[in-house]
Amino acid sequence: MIHHLKGQLVEKNPTHVVIDCNGVGYFVHISLHTFALVGNDSEAIKLYTHLQIKEDSHTLYGFVEKSERELFRLLISVSGVGASTARTMLSSLEPKQIMEAIASGDAATVQSIKGIGAKTAQRVILDLKDKVLKVFGEGEVFVSQSNTNKEEALSALETLGFARKPAEKVVDRIMKQATDPTVETIIKLALKNL
Fold first, then answer.
1. Which of the residues 106, 112, 132, 149 has the least number of beta carbons within 10 Å of its own beta carbon?
2. Is the pLDDT of residue 87 over 90?
3. Domains of the chain with CATH codes
4. What is the model's pLDDT at position 133?
5. How far are the Cα atoms of 15, 21, 41, 90, 115 from residue 111, in angstroms, in the given order?
6. Region annotation Domain III: residue ranges (predicted)?
């Protein structure tokens, strides 16, 4: 309904801004990512918006980047992820980090966000993996091969009976020392160190 707002920045807070558009002040909810990109008071500003209409409220969310708004819309399309949770996700991690985590199936990164449990993280990845790659293109979402190798190695180590946390510490150490190791190399080196 409201595609974007362009006007003077009247008020700036980490969670919201007020934009004066020809004498009408719009209260717009923002993420910390957008907060970092917004200028200072009384500057001209343009935010891409998403209007959420509920029975008891009309809430406007604003984003400096169109891609962040698209990611926000994808996130709220997932069952169990509301606008507040999506905004928290975009405040906790950079949009690019979220896209990469979803595209590579990195549930641990998604789950590291406050308020996101294991089931929700899995649902976000399951529902959005293909959509993220389709909307943003594989060129924009960089899925590092080493991250996929790391996840496969951790999964194998868990299957072998090792606890995730200690295994992850060892695998991280291996990832820092070796340049682009294969899954087999990671598992062999991890087994020596566990």
1. 112
2. yes
3. 4-63 (2.40.50.140), 66-140 (1.10.150.20), 145-193 (1.10.8)
4. 75
5. 22, 38, 35, 13, 8
6. 146-194
